[in-house]
Amino acid sequence: MAINSLMTIEEVADYLRVKKRTVYDWVKKGKIPAIKAVGQWRFKKEKIDQWLETQHQGGGVWQI
Q1: Any domain includes 41
Q2: What percent of the chain has pLDDT over 90?
Q3: How far does the chain reach from its first CA to its final CA, in angstroms?
Q4: Which of 20, 25, 43, 61 is the most exposed place for a label (fewest CB within 10 A)?
Q5: Residue pLDDT, tens place only, 4-18
Q6: Beta-carbon count within 10 A of 12 CB
Q7: Phi, psi (5° rounding) for residue 31?
Q8: 64: three-class secondary structure by DSSP
Q9: What is d(CA 43, CA 32) in angstroms, rounded to the nearest whole number?
């Protein structure tokens, strides 16, 4: 796993255009794929993109 493919909480929040607190809440509830490395949460962009696709429901509604 290349270190470049891992995103921080801040990067994921910016990417998803949500607050960092929202990302922390999603991690706590197991709603978003995350990895804890050296005591910090990290996210693979590929997994986030896949996760986003699974959240989309017909009619343009996103279920997160």
Answers
A1: yes
A2: 69
A3: 27
A4: 61
A5: 689 999 999 999 999
A6: 22
A7: -85, -20
A8: coil
A9: 9
